[in-house]
Amino acid sequence: MIRRWFTKKQKSPQPIQDVHTAEVAAGLCTKAANPDPVSEITHFKSRLKDFGIEFSQLAVSTPKETENRLQAIQVAEEIAADPEMRNYFLTWKRLPLLHDEQSQVQKLTMKRQREYITALTLIFIENYQVLMQYVPGTGGKH
């Protein structure tokens, strides 16, 4: 589905994410079992603004087709799980994706879902417990 652009060319070392982002992410990951939904959503809104996305845009950018939604979730999980891709995503505020040249439809679909994939990736990286319950297919746990 996706391949990493890191493997295609010799790359210079990527800048490491800023200390503030790492501290915030670490703080959210170690929260108590009962997270505060209001503070979690407020923090999520501010993180989305860092990426140039408004919270209200997410409803419009959510894919209507179930298959496309599950595909976007899979892409977001892959970015969040890979340390190099996650570092690129947090540092440059862009999705580190290249698409197969064979499938132009898939490339167009991923372009359209950029905001949705970005939001999902942030949810997985920052480990927002309350928001993760609303992501289909994760069961509230990641």
Topology:
Layout: E1 2-3, H1 19-29, H2 37-50, H3 57-61, H4 66-81, H5 83-92, E2 98-99, H6 104-112, H7 114-126, H8 129-132
Antiparallel strand pairs: 1-2
Helix pairs in contact: 4-5, 4-7
Average pLDDT for all residues: 76
Distance between the termini: 21 Å
> What characterizes the major β-sheet?
2 strands, antiparallel
List the helices and strands in order. EHHHHHEHHH
Tags for this model:
disordered N terminus; two-stranded antiparallel ribbon; 8 helices; single chain; mainly alpha
Could you characterize what this model shows?
It is globular and about 40 Å long. It has a two-stranded antiparallel ribbon. It starts with a strand and ends in a 10-residue tail after the last helix. Helix 4 (66-81) packs across helix 5 and helix 4 packs across helix 7. It has one domain (35-142). It is mainly alpha-helical and 142 residues long. The longest helix is centred in the middle third of the chain and has 16 residues, at 66-81. Helices cover 58% and strands 3% of the residues.
Short description:
The protein has 142 residues and is mostly helical. The chain is 58% helix and 3% strand.
